[in-house]
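Bug report (template v2)

What were you trying to do?
Predict the complex of my protein with iron/sulfur cluster.

What happened?
Run completed; filing so the output is reviewed.

Input:
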Amino acid sequence: MSLLKILLTNYCLFDCAYCINRRSSNVERARFTVDEVVALTVNFYKRNYIEGLFLSSGIVRSPDHTMEQMTLVAKKLRREEGFAGYIHLKTIPEASPWLIEQAGLFADRLSINLELPSAESLRSLAPEKDAGTIAGAMGQMHERIAEAKEDRRRFSPAGQSTQIIVGADATTDAALLTTSAALYRDYGLRRVYYSAFSPIPAASAVLPLKPPPLQRENRLYQADWLLRFYGFTPEEVAASGEDGMLALDVDPKSAWALKNRGRFPVDVNTADREALLRVPGLGARSVDRILAARRHTRLKLADVGRLARSVKRLLPFLVAADYRPPTALADKAELRPQLAEAPAQLSLF
Ligand code: SF4
C-alpha cells in the first residue's frame, strides 16, 4: 500500500540515542499544523498518489498533547473530509488511555514502537522510555481491539503493530525472534517491523559506528514469516544460523533444511502439511494446492511444477510418483552455495 509517511514534527522532548530527532541533536526542526497534514493527505489521495497516511511524531509539549494532535488529524480527515483511505497512527505509550481510545475510532491501525528488544537496552539508549509502560500499553490495546470486535464497534480494525530497531545494540536474532513470537502470542500483533539501525551524526559512543549488514533485516523478515505462517519456533529458526544470528548467505528456511538434512527428501504424496511447509521453495499456498490435488491423484514432478512456483529449487528435497533425488541430501556438499544463488540461476543437478 502506498502511504504518505510523515512526522507531524521532528521536535522531540525525548533523547533516544539512536534517533536523529532526539532532544540533544542539532538537526533543523520543523512542524506541520494539523490542517496542513489534513490538506496534504487529501490532496495526494485525490490525485491517486497515495492510498493512505502513516502519521508519526516526535513528542512535543507532552505525550498527551502530541497524541491529541495526531488524533485530530485522523478525526478531521474522517469527519470533515470524508476521507476513506487507510490511516495508521503511531501512538505514544505514555499518552492517556482516553486519547488512545479516540485514536482507535478514526485510525485503521495503531502501533506502539517497542524500539529496542530488551529493557536494559531501552534503559541505556532511550532513558525516557520504559519497557513496562510499553508492554502495558500494548496489552491495553490488545484488550480494546478484542472488546471492540466482540461488540462490533470500530476500534483500530486493522489491529496493532510495532517496530524494533535492529543493530543498535548487541541483541541477537534469536533474542529478537523470541521477543517477536511473544508479541504475536501475548498481544495479537499483526506485524513486527524490523528497522535496521543507521548511524547518525554526533552519535553517542555506545552506538555502533556501522549499520548492520543489509541482508540482516531481510533475513529477519523471512524468519518472522516462518514463525507466523510455517509453524517454526523461534528456537528452530535461530538454530539454523550460528551463535544466535541468522545465516546471511541463504534464507532461514533453506538454512534450517541444511542443518536438518536427515528430514529430506519428503514424499509429496504422503507427507503431512507441516513437513511440506518445511521444504525450501514450497510456499503455504502451493502446499494447500498440493494437498487438495493429491486427494484425486498421485502427483508426478510435472504436477508439482504446475502447483508450485518453481520446481527447480524443490528437486533435492522432494520425492514424487515418478521422481526421487539422485543424490542423498546429506551427501551434497555443494548444496549450500547453490541455494544461496537467486532461484532463476539454480542448477541443482
Ligand atoms: S521519542 Fe521518537 S522521535 Fe523522540 S527521540 Fe525517541 S525515537 Fe526519536
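What did the reviewer find?
The longest strand covers residues 160-166. Residues 31 and 133 are 27 Å apart (CA to CA).
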